[in-house]
What we know:
6-stranded parallel β-sheet; 4-stranded parallel β-sheet
Amino acid sequence: MSAARILLFDSGMGGLTVARSVRHELPFAHLVYAADNAAFPYGAWEEQALVKRILFVMGELIERVEPALVVVACNTASTIALAQLRETFSLPFVGTVPAIKPAAAQTKSGIVGVLATPGTVRREYTQALIHDFASHCHVVLHGAGRMAEIAERKLKGVPVNLGELKAEIAPVFHEEEGRRTDIVVLGCTHYPLLADEMAKVEPWVVRYIDPAPAIARRVADVLRDAEVQDASKPVPPHNSVLLTSSRAGAEDALPAYAKLGFHLPEFLDLRV
């Protein structure tokens, strides 16, 4: 066995929240973080065009990186293209989907908020999760159209506009018959990057569910089953970043990648 090479894929920098948890779970893995920043944000894409884009970019990335496993660290990409990715490529994929099941199990008020991108909110996959695991709850779905961009700007050093953020999260704070939303599912990997700011503008205290730790545990389990990861043979972590465009603004994000241990950025020039 050898140290695993793991490809983490997102449209932007939100997947860094998942990468951080994977690094904690598997400190000696070789992580390659790929951001399709040329096509960001995915939530604005038409479905068929986005699936085609994801399959194309993933093919280029797998050929270059040769990973043992791919983490699709993006709710939108997972809910729309995970099945097609597994059919197309012969390696394990771990996806990211809204944590509706654990939220429904943990709520005490019976009112659960789901903050996601507009695309994830529209997906039949999300509706199926609610039907299968949260039919006994009042689930308040909200497509937050600006939150991913707010998180990206924060990582590039732009202060968060708290008024704008407050308006983005307000719809999932629901009250009825003396009960309130008590759990909010963060249905986009960008959103945990705004946890501190959300705590400042929430109308009352709720529990936010970040799926990243559970995803990291799943990655470890899959690699263990495949006998890829050997934690007894530590090697210096070698983490790199691949970006699909060097367009204006991409370079501004490099300090944020470096802060989480991702260096050696490369630009693949897979512009839309």
